[in-house]
Write a structure and sequence with these properties.
Layout (H helix, E strand, L loop, with lengths): L14 H11 L13 H17 L7 E5 L5 H8 L3 E6 L2 H13 L5 E4 L11 E7 L8 H11 E12 L3 H14 L16 H10 L2 E12 L4 E5 L5 E8 L1
Parallel strand pairs: 1-2, 1-4, 2-3, 4-5
Antiparallel strand pairs: 5-8, 6-7, 6-8
């Protein structure tokens, strides 16, 4: 993976503004540059797409809400797999990128600008995906409460986020942002990282029962992402609505 330019610095910006800034630096196409500052999200698709496809028994015919969709990298995989997708993000620049890219690809995705904490879903879904977003919201409990409201009883909440460990700090922030530069500087706030047990407890409070958690690791030499046993850095999993 190529390292990013030093101009990819989003320190001291609110989370939505970080991604608006990256779009403004170049163009909405920055979301689809596999070797750019958001290229790691394309690598994550190697894990999250097949994982959630297996969990849901395929995307075909599923009604899915994608929370914190960014420029639509994961969202488009859901739609191409046959899902009917509603997707939200708090960054207007990212939604612009997502809408433009979906239109060029002939995909029918319902995108809108909204915060996870305050979005009011107009329908209930078979699945809600909160993938690579929980570590960016200001109020995790409000976001999880919204996800629970958006789910049909028995529906699935999929998540992917980062553990609050020294190893996660070293790999994602110290190395990823400041040494190797494959993540924009300031992209992550370590205080927002979530331990798996903490996330499970928060989900339970909102009627969401944890079913499974698996570790996710980056191999930057290949580069690729893969499922691993350890959840010390990043982890993926799902819960069901009771």
């Amino acid at each position: 993976m190529s390292t990013t330019d030093v101009s990819y610095d989003v320190r001291n910006l609110a989370d939505p503004a970080k991604y608006d800034h990256l779009v403004e630096l170049e163009s909405p196409a920055i979301w689809w540059n596999h070797t750019g500052p958001l290229g790691g999200l394309h690598l994550l698709n190697q894990v999250r797409v097949p994982y959630f496809d297996d969990v849901l028994g395929g995307f075909t015919g599923k009604r899915i809400l994608d929370v914190g969709c960014g420029g639509g990298i994961f969202t488009e995989s859901l739609a191409r797999g046959g899902a009917s997708v509603v997707a939200i993000d708090a960054s207007p620049g990212s939604i612009q990128a997502a809408v433009e890219h979906a239109r060029k690809g002939g995909l029918d995705i319902d995108y809108s600008v909204a915060f996870a904490e305050t979005y009011e879903p107009s329908q209930q879904f078979d699945a809600v995906m909160a993938v690579d977003v929980l570590e960016h919201v200001d109020d995790v409990d409000a976001a999880l409460a919204m996800c629970a409201r958006a789910l049909e009883p028995g529906g699935i909440l999929g998540f992917l986020t980062h553990n609050q460990t020294l190893k996660a700090f070293e790999e994602l922030i110290w190395a990823g942002e400041y040494q190797l530069g494959f993540i924009p500087k300031g992209n992550h706030d370590f205080h927002k990282f979530l331990a798996p047990a903490d996330l499970a407890q928060r989900m339970s409070t909102h009627g969401l029962q944890l079913v499974e958690t698996k570790g996710v690791a980056f191999d930057l030499d290949t580069p690729r992402t893969l499922l691993v046993e350890s959840t010390d850095v990043s982890y993926v999993g799902y819960a069901t609505k009771r």
